[in-house]
Amino acid sequence: MTLSQYDVADLGLAPAGVRRVEWAERAMPALSSINERFARSRPLDGLRISACMHVTAETANLLRVLRSGGAEVMLAASNPLSTQDDTAAALVAEYGMRVYARSGIDAATYDRNLATVLSQRPHLLLDDGCDLVNTAYHTGAELLEHTMGGCEQTTTGVIRLRQMSAEGVLQLPMVAVNDTATKRMFDNRYGTGQSTIDGIMRATNALLSGRTLVVAGFGYCGRGLAERARGMGARVVVTEVDPVKALDAVMQGYTVLPMAEAARVGDVFVTVTGNRDVIRAEHLADLKDGAVLANAGHFDVEIDLAALDDLAVEIRPDVRPQADEYVLADGRRIVLVSEGRLVNLGAAEGHPAAVMDMSFAVQALTVEWLAQQHEQLSPGVLDVPTEIDTEVASLELAALQVHIDELTAEQRDYLSSWDA
After folding, report:
1. Model confidence band, residue 1 (pLDDT cutoffs 50, 70, 90)
2. Is the per-residue pLDDT at 3 higher than 60?
3. Pfam families per the record (predicted)?
4. What's this model's pTM, rounded to 2 decimal places?
5. Which residues are annotated as a binding site?
6. CATH assignment, 3-183+351-399
7. Residues 6+ apart with CB under 8 A from 75
């Protein structure tokens, strides 16, 4: 493999990356089971896959499965702060993939890497936040002339794709992997809940017990975060714009406030909305001394960083790893974690491998389904077939040695009859 076929920080890190990937693999039994089948049946033979994903050990194991299935894989990072340089090196040196990812790259390099993985004229896309699809449509739709379809694994990306579809510009079938039951319940709820707190703790070493943690957004990710914060002894305040989600938070025992009121009482703030400017200048002006700001949404737009810069008379970078301190004119200090980017991947290691096992098992089986069924699919945002979600849950239960009941013939008849 020549230099032009990859761009990673240091191939010498590959042995450490292999150890990291193999450690994650131990906690990914469903994906390992799919890998064994793919290696035998080769359902992806001859297909080129371009991926824009977080370059982590868990992602590496997904890509290894696709490679076992016969695919040629090219990967660009979906977030500069989440890239594990040792994992990127291992993917190139040990697993023979073309990877364009280095931790901490600038925006121009990020965009160039996306264009590079698209230049192979992919048959299938794996996207994270719709960046790959957006890049293709803004730089030349001919890059996708061979593309059968793809998968999107984030809430933000699915929102973007649905808007593209509504405006008639999405010319591909894109599967909303994010919207499956296993992804929403386990990845978004349990994964984001645990890994977000992990990131905040690593960056700040703050004690959450007895402090007020504000969760902006009460979707699946917000619910998981609120549950874990309450379990650690925090007083949890929820902010919402959706009356149904706000009512759900109230019924679960959380305090629900507008952000204008929450800003005055919170000690730690975490945005999990998928929208921009959730914490704005008027909120920043009311924060307590020492308030911590973190984002667990996809892009770094949920906290108004320009307003924070304007308010600060001094910025102290890296007061701790992944924590910058902004000093205001009256002496108050505000701590921003991971530059306002994804805190669970910037300051920690993302979701536990056991959680990503389910999400990436769904992803692998959906890629296989797309390869087989693409000629029957229409452009737009599609749901993952229910049988794929069910199969992944069954694989996980088998790995956990958990057994469940099966419907009897009489029960199946009863459920399928209107006059029983």
Report:
1. very low
2. no
3. AdoHcyase, AdoHcyase_NAD
4. 0.86
5. 56, 128, 154-156, 183, 187-188, 217-222, 240, 275, 296-298, 344
6. 3.40.50.1480
7. 51, 52, 53, 55, 59, 63, 91, 97, 98, 99, 100, 101, 117
